[in-house]
UniProtKB/TrEMBL annotation:
Domain Guanylate kinase/L-type calcium channel beta subunit span(s) in chain numbering: 22-80
GO molecular function, one term: GMP kinase activity
Gene3D superfamilies from the UniProt entry: P-loop containing nucleotide triphosphate hydrolases
Transmembrane segments: none
Species for this entry: Racocetra fulgida
Highest taxon listed in the record's lineage: Eukaryota
GO terms for cellular component: cytosol
Record keywords, A-Z: Transferase
Protein name (Swiss-Prot/TrEMBL): 14721_t:CDS:1
Length: 84
């Protein structure tokens, strides 16, 4: 399960970066033409589970909304520097 992988990364003291937008993920998977419908649905289900986990209080050390590139980059850069 993808959530277990995220927890394992965090348990190792590493920073985990997630970028999940279901509509974009589905478009990418369909445009590749390499995934069966069952595989696409399985990937979308896993992504939905990751989003549910992400919504849990305390599941992440930092949430950055990329609605302004310069601001998001600065927040990301500062977070990475602080992690190390």
């Amino acid at each position: 399960m993808a959530i277990d992988a995220v927890r394992a990364v965090a348990d190792e003291g590493k920073c985990c970066i997630l970028d999940i937008e279901l509509q974009v993920l589905e478009e990418r998977l369909r445009n590749r033409g390499t995934e069966s419908e069952d595989a696409i649905q399985a990937r979308l289900k896993a992504a939905k589970e990751e989003l549910a986990y992400a919504a849990e209080e305390g599941s992440h050390d930092k949430v950055i909304v990329n609605d302004d590139l310069d601001t998001a980059y600065e927040q990301f850069r500062k977070f990475i520097v602080d992690c190390n």
